[in-house]
């Protein structure tokens, strides 16, 4: 895996602000590069990724691409239940993907406007779609739109990594994750990327 050099400066800045980050960063180094497509294709990928492992999500996405060729609203709506099932999408995720396609085609979701919107407006716009919650919005902001100050606080791996990093007695809640990462501003995206890296590197379970 290739280290993401774009995270070096923000993680060095975070290391000066947080001694726990500084120690873990020395042990784990830079996270690997990772990105996500923007637009409809990226959002469908994020819906697929909900509550499954990264490996499972990649496998499902690969099978879906085999079914449709290209992930567009039109192609998703043309795929029948059997095709969706063969790709590995659960019934709720089938509904969410089709609902997203309908919202985009009807103009209720205007994904092309998102890069010019502030973070909170992006969340308000996306969260209208069924199956898209705050976690998906924040992951989209972080990976697809490359926003620098986002913390997907409901992510269980991030919560476990924060528990381990800070030596907490239990897994922090979403509210506590926002509080614990408050002093990481304006580099919370780098902090979140590092927590995922730390989770895998430290073998936290």
Q: What this model shows, in words?
A:
61% of the residues lie in helices and 0% in strands. The chain is an all-alpha fold. The protein has two domains: 5-33 and 150-201, Orthogonal Bundle (Endonuclease Iii, domain 2), CATH 1.10.1670.40; 39-144, Endonuclease III, domain 1 (Orthogonal Bundle), CATH 1.10.340.30. Helix 2 packs across helix 12 (188-201) and helix 3 (39-49) crosses helix 9 (134-144). The longest helix has 15 residues, at 54-68. The two termini are 22 Å apart.
The CATH class designation of the largest domain is Mainly Alpha
Helix fraction by DSSP (H/I, runs of at least 4)? 55-70%
Chain-averaged pLDDT: 95
By CATH, the superfamily of the largest domain comes out as: Hypothetical protein, domain 2
Mind telling me which CATH architecture of the largest domain this is? Orthogonal Bundle
Q: Please give the count of helices.
A: 12
How far the N terminus sits from the C terminus, by CA atoms, comes to 22 Å
CATH fold description of the largest domain = Endonuclease III, domain 1
Keywords:
single chain, 205 residues, mainly alpha, Endonuclease Iii, domain 2, Endonuclease III, domain 1, 2 domains, 12 helices, globular
Summarize the structure.
This protein is mainly alpha-helical and 205 residues long.
């Amino acid at each position: 895996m290739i280290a993401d050099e774009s995270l070096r400066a923000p993680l060095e800045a975070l290391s000066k602000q947080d001694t726990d980050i500084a120690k873990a960063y020395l042990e784990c180094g830079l996270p690997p590069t990772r990105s996500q497509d923007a637009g409809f294709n990226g959002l469908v990928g994020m819906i697929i990724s909900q509550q499954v492992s990264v490996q499972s999500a990649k496998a499902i996405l690969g099978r879906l691409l085999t079914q449709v060729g290209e992930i567009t609203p039109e192609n998703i709506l043309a795929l029948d239940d059997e095709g969706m099932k063969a790709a590995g999408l659960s019934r709720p995720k089938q509904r969410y993907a089709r609902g997203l396609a309908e919202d985009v085609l009807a103009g209720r979701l205007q994904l092309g406007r998102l890069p010019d919107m502030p973070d909170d407006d992006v969340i308000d716009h996306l969260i209208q779609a069924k199956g898209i919650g705050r976690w998906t919005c924040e992951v989209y902001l972080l990976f697809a739109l490359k926003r620098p100050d986002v913390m997907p606080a409901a992510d269980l791996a991030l919560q476990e990594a924060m528990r381990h990093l800070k030596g907490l007695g239990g897994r922090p809640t979403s509210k506590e994750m926002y509080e614990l990462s408050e002093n990481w501003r304006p580099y919370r995206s780098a902090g979140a990327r590092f927590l995922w890296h730390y989770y895998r590197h430290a073998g936290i379970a």
